[in-house]
Amino acid sequence: xxxxxxxxxxxxxxxxxxxxxxxxxxxxxxxxxxxxxxxxxxxxxxxxxxxxxxxxxxxxxxxxxxxxxxxxxxxxxxxxxxxxxxxxxxxxxxxxxxxxxxxxxxxxxxxxxxxxxxxxxxxxxxxxxxxxxxxxxxxxxxxxxxxxxxxxxxxxxxxxxxxxxxxxxxxxxxxxxxxxxxxxxxxxxxxxxxxxxxxxxxxxxxxxxxxxxxxxxxxxxxxxxxxxxxxxxxxxxxxxx
Length: 241
Fold this sequence. Notes:
By secondary structure, this protein is α/β, with parallel strands linked by helices. It contains seven helices and seven strands. The termini are far apart.
């Protein structure tokens, strides 16, 4: 019986690389997408399935109603054997006073709450021996002055992964988080050269990560049944100092 995997935010960058990895590993993959980075407008790009084993669905994870409907639809599959909580958004503010209630709560809903609600609503169809993987961030470990909401929510994602281990105790289901550093995604490519060079200067390997290298960390979590409650940093030896 083919296993089912959900990867949220999976039509570009890290999420897409993880989705392709799961296809290689023989999973039927359900990939979701909704918003462009730093945008409150729905993603305008229309995606279509690339194979019978790859579904692409638009799901707004900032909407409790749409998220609940998605979970109900996924429960009909009977079993969800891997959940990769990758979708996220950021809120960049120079000053604390610029952060609005709506902006903060929207990022919290997308990056943290939606993951809790999705796993809760799918709990009954997660078989023993399944895998739950969160895409956290180096910014959830090291401070970042320009993105308080993002850093705090990614710290919460790490805490969520560690605490969910207890809820899956005695099931052989593992829960882990991957904390990437700076990855060569479309968003990072848009940064000014000066900023990119500064990032590279602070990275021991002197480059950005390839999304496939982050997917390889997810593959490790997928295949190693004793890695549980771990935070795997994939940063190239980045130091913010």
